[in-house]
Design brief:
The protein has 345 residues and is an alpha/beta fold. The protein has one domain: Spore Coat Polysaccharide Biosynthesis Protein SpsA, Chain A (Alpha-Beta Complex). It has a five-stranded mixed β-sheet with strand order 3-2-1-4-10, with helices on both faces. A hairpin with a 2-residue loop joins strand 6 and strand 7. Helix 6 runs parallel beside helix 9, helix 7 packs across helix 8 and helix 10 packs parallel to helix 11. The two termini are 33 Å apart.
């Protein structure tokens, strides 16, 4: 038997309600303290929430019932559906963890409006299982999935592919040569606009991958407590600095990339791309494209994960289409409890 399935597995979700006036006030106070300018990494849309967290939690309970505890990490906030937990069998399985807990001893890093800083401290949650999943609140499951989709023979199951790092791509090298010939100095990249592939490359280089990077898909990420402890032991100064960026920075290492490349270096990971992610961007994609993507995911059972970005900015018709699909495919908390109640009768 796969021993990974015997040990408990938890899930950790990071969440923020940007519409909360107290959160907005805290962010504005911090921006004022650093000069008042609002960089792209502090765009209000980064903190918005339209109830995705509820679908995320319900999808884990419905499609991954083997998860022991679901931790929701927030900044002095609580999702509205939490008030409905009392008296249900799930009251002890879903717990709120405040930033002050995971940043204990690192209070100088607070307040944090940086998802990368926050997720790099999730391993410090008290009583967290050795094996756990990390999810953003815009992730969800759309079909049943087993624990072996994330942990196999004590190894992490990674989804993604190897690619050449940006600075080693032929067209980048050619561009630099042309600029040099013209006597033009290369302009340093901005640390304001943060690209996910760039911070993954930062993480890769820390573990000796200087020409290639394992580019991860947007889906729930399997992590181990012991791997985070090893990272902190090997790179204590880097770890401390990395979690103290109050806003996202291109100089950071993305936590997903840290653990992926550490595990690959130590032969503690396997690559398996059989399960796919349905990635929706309702604010940017045409309605016909969204419908096509949803239809494909319904037909193809390899689509197990969904990532929905910036749903709050979607046109009304796209917003309604996606939310209706989520309600039908996953169900909200009331739907889930109703189904569970019927099962128990």
């Amino acid at each position: 038997m796969n021993s990974s399935l015997i040990s408990p597995i938890d899930a950790v979700i990071t969440w923020v309600d940007g519409a909360d006036p107290l959160h907005s006030e805290k962010l504005n106070r911090y921006l004022t303290s650093i000069g008042g300018a609002r960089p792209h990494s502090a765009n209000p849309a980064r903190f918005n929430s339209v109830g995705e967290i509820e679908y995320c939690v319900v999808s884990l309970l419905r499609y991954a019932p083997w998860i022991r505890t679901i931790f929701i990490v927030t900044d002095n906030q609580q999702p509205s559906f939490m008030t409905k937990l009392q008296g249900t069998p799930f009251a002890q399985r879903i717990k709120i963890v405040d930033h002050s807990v995971i940043f204990s001893g690192r209070e100088e890093c607070l307040p944090s409006f940086n998802s990368m800083s926050i997720s790099s401290q999730l391993w410090r949650i008290p009583n967290l299982a050795e094996q756990f999943l990390f999810l953003n609140d815009d992730f969800a499951l759309i079909r049943p999935v087993g624990a072996d989709a994330f942990f196999c023979d004590q190894k992490l199951v990674l989804r993604g592919h190897w690619q050449v790092q940006s600075n080693h791509r032929w067209y980048r090298q050619l561009w630099r040569q042309m600029q040099k010939m013209k006597g033009i100095k290369e302009v340093a990249r901005s640390i304001d606009r943060v690209k996910f592939i760039g911070v993954q490359e930062n993480s890769a280089r820390l573990f000796g991958y200087f020409k290639t990077v394992f580019q991860l898909e947007h889906n729930p990420h399997p992590w181990k407590l012991s791997q985070w402890e090893l990272f902190e032991k090997e790179h204590a100064d880097v770890a401390r600095k990395n979690c103290c960026h109050h806003l996202r920075s291109a100089e950071q290492l993305v936590p997903e990339g840290i653990i992926a490349h550490l595990a690959l270096r130590n032969n503690e990971a396997v690559i398996d791309n059989r399960l796919q992610t349905l990635q929706l961007k309702p604010a940017d994609q045409a309605l016909v494209r969204i419908k096509s993507k949803l239809a494909r995911a319904e037909r193809n059972e390899s689509y197990v994960f969904v990532c929905i970005q910036s749903l709050e900015n979607a046109p009304a018709e796209s917003f309604e289409l996606v939310t209706n699909w989520l309600r039908e495919r996953i169900g909200n908390w009331d739907d889930f409890i109703e189904v569970e109640s019927k099962k128990s009768k």
